[in-house]
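Marked as duplicate of an earlier ticket. Keeping the data here for the record.
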Amino acid sequence: MISILDYDAGNIKSVEKALVALGRETVITRDPDIILSSDKVILPGVGAFGDAMSRIRSCGMDKVIYEVADRGIPFLGICLGLQLLFESSEESPGVTGLGLLPGKILRIPDKPGHKIPHMGWNSLTVKNDATLFRGIRENPYVYFVHSYYLKAGREEDVAATTEYSTLIHASVEYGNIFACQFHPEKSSSVGLKILENFVNL
């Protein structure tokens, strides 16, 4: 079973729909017992970094996420869910993230011809050994919606990058922790393959 963490952060239903299309038993929950007994756990999300961290901490979900990480349960962060895994965000000064991985979330710099938020399809440069991208063609296109981006603290954690006004760390992998800044659930057949690779770990 796959648990999708429910902390009132949007885009949860579209992730559930994609997993159901893959034939996977899926539950949207904030119940620690259900989450910790799951085969896989997904942290989706859209919205503001500070508000999301406040909701996660107020319902005790931060402790559950740390337990998931410690137990080695495969864990996937999507969009805001990626950002929350890191230390801090320029969007919410003074708010600490989950800090599961080193790195900071920065605002996409202004650049002529580049609208912010970044909304649309961009190609990825993928590392050869990236787990989530097995069986996917070179330089796949995926769908982004974001105004802030990850600058990872460890280059070796970065699984894929894209260029939009600056170099964006678009996906990371470390141990049982995986994350995508883009939306695999909205990225057509490429996105479904990424989700399939995750649920088949």
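See parent ticket for discussion. Helices lie at 12-21, 32-36, 49-58, 61-71, 80-83, 188-199.
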